[in-house]
Amino acid sequence: MSIVIRDVREHELDSVLALNNNAGLAILPLDAARVHHFYEHAEYFRVAERDGNLSGFLVGFGSGSGHDSSNFAWFAERNPSFFYIDRIVVASRRRGGGVGRAFYADVQSYAELRFPQLACEVFLDHGADPALLFHGSFGFKEVGQHVMPDVHVRASMLMKELCSYPWVRDTYGGVLPDLPWTRERKAASLHSERPTGT
Fold this sequence. Notes:
Blueprint: E1 3-7, H1 13-21, H2 32-41, E2 44-50, E3 53-62, H3 70-78, E4 83-90, H4 99-111, E5 117-123, H5 129-137, E6 141-148, E7 153-161, H6 165-172, H7 186-191
Parallel strand pairs: 4-5
Antiparallel strand pairs: 1-2, 2-3, 3-4, 5-7, 6-7
Pfam families: Acetyltransf_1
Domain N-acetyltransferase: 3-164
Protein name: GNAT family N-acetyltransferase
């Protein structure tokens, strides 16, 4: 069966919370209020659906969002414009089946229209080799390490240049055509005031 990547729906937030909190030590736990905050404010909040079931989710924020993560702040101190993947979770029964790759293809196609770089982190304290290999295969490179002060977790900070961004910026000047695949989430567009292009 094919993998469908689409915007999350509000009635799915409990399922998203369960996926997150069953993901193991590589993902920080969430509560219902935090998931709802993501729903209200995240620029990118999409789920994967396979065989009619949720198989995972990805949450991301643009650099102008004022996101309150310490890892986001680490990137913001060093880079003026980037898109940050806050978390990606794939259900354990779906790992290795292409869901993560489908998410990264989708989030990159979203980000490269708007930002010159894609940023994320991998926690290093709990068997990071598969995650580092996965990200390396997508062209991410470590640009530093950061210890998250609130949870004392060490993270490898990864970035990837988005080579299509300069062409999109120069061609469209920060005003993308109004097409279904170029539109931002409605909830996020009400809360963010990201400057166009750099």
